Amino acid sequence: MKKRAILLLSGGIDSAVALYLLKSRNYDVVAISINYPGRGERERESARILAKLTNTRLIEVDIPFMKEIVELWNNKEERPEHLRDAHPSTIPARNAIIYAVAAYYAEILGINIIVAGHNADDTKYFPDTSRMFRKIISRALTIGTHIGKTKGLRVIAPLSKLNKTEVVKLGLKLGVPFEYTWSCHNNYDKPCGQCSGCLARKRAFDELGVKDPLEEAINSGRDWWLLKKKSLLKP
Ligand SMILES: [Zn+2]
């Protein structure tokens, strides 16, 4: 029987590489994309395209209350003390919520592996991307679900030992179409080039000495998003 996994797919680089990694290992993948209000339409659409390209079923889940701390408070000083030094794109208890949503579908679909795309850089800023958190939540879900009691339910992050550059390197090897991924935290048509998402992406491609296919597509007028918008504007 084919191995099955639920993948949390955002449309960013890490989860796209995780998707292609699972496919290369012959996994039957069901992808879950979490729609929260601050998430840009281009990123949502990226997840849809990546799923389509890999023949992967995509389940979109709306979580309307979920916000990043930059949206919850106007500035650092307003934040409660324990969140003052938190990364601006922190979402309170993000992965506790998202893993629980994935466990809901794991139980329904009879799948006992949940895959998250976290990389080694994430653990510096987000406590809910740590190995220990995954280990303990896997234990809790194994005890607390029927699929867990039958087969064990594990949350794994196969890219967690790789930094962003190594993730991109692996993605290039796996043939990930990076022009369909989106890393910018802003909801523009083109990457802003300034936010932490854009900078981390740029650094990774620069370190490998490889041109970012998204940047190339934009520069040559072949960017799928802009082409799609143009065709929608046609009478
Ligand atoms: Zn950006």
TrEMBL record:
Q: Is Metal-binding among the key words of this record?
A: yes
Q: Which InterPro entries match?
A: QueC (IPR018317), Rossmann-like_a/b/a_fold (IPR014729)
The family database entries (Pfam families) matched by this protein are listed as: QueC (PF06508)
Recorded GO molecular functions are: ATP binding; ligase activity; metal ion binding
Q: Catalytic activity annotated for this protein?
A: 7-carboxy-7-carbaguanine + NH4(+) + 2 ATP = 7-cyano-7-carbaguanine + 2 AMP + 2 diphosphate + 2 H(+)
Q: What CDD domains would the database entry show?
A: QueC-like
Q: Does the keyword Zinc apply?
A: yes
Keywords, ordered alphabetically? ATP-binding, Ligase, Metal-binding, Nucleotide-binding, Zinc
Quote the pathway field: Purine metabolism; 7-cyano-7-deazaguanine biosynthesis
The Enzyme Commission number assigned here is 6.3.4.20
Q: Which domain of life is it from?
A: Archaea
Relate the protein's function as given in its record.
Catalyzes the ATP-dependent conversion of 7-carboxy-7-deazaguanine (CDG) to 7-cyano-7-deazaguanine (preQ(0)).
Query: Which family does the entry's similarity section mention?
Result: Belongs to the QueC family.
Q: What is this protein called?
A: 7-cyano-7-deazaguanine synthase
